[in-house]
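dude i think i finally got it to work??
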Amino acid sequence: MTDTRTALRDFMFRGLMFESKAAGFQSAGIQVGADVGQAEERLLSEALSPFGVVRRNQALEMGRLYVVIHCFENEVRSLIRETLEEKDGIDWIQKLPAKIRSFAEGRQKAAEQDSWLSGEKSDVLGFADFGHLATIIVEKWAHFEDLLPSQHWLKQRMDELEKVRHFIAHNRVLLPTEYQRVYMYIADWNRVVGL
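look at this
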């Protein structure tokens, strides 16, 4: 038993010493260990290699756009969740427009029962359609009017971004000028809400 403890203690001590020395080397600009970024890039490159260059480039650009839309949509959901929880209380879900709440709860229930996917399922708002988000804000406008310039401003941006979201979700390719409009709308939103 003593030999096992000694061996374990020595092993852990050597590991701590290695980490300490490695940190010193890394701060001096010397790479120690695997470069996760390079490994990820190699894996992506291998997965895309069967496809033509044009298709790969389109996919990579659309992937970046997807990431931006994903972040935007989930920030809007967070803004709604935090604002309504603050203004309507912990039972804010019950105070959502009935059709939207029913729709989201139905999707949530289906996901819990039928899906083999084990992703996030506890957030009812996560099951509302993108288009529902603007409707929730408009229905609860008194809670959001100090944050957003107008309902028209909100609906215009959300309607345009919903179209883009559907385009991306169905693997269609946008034109570069359309990317710029998406980036502009999202930057405008972020500026207004203080992100």
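The CA atoms of residues 14 and 41 lie 32 Å apart.
im so relieved honestly
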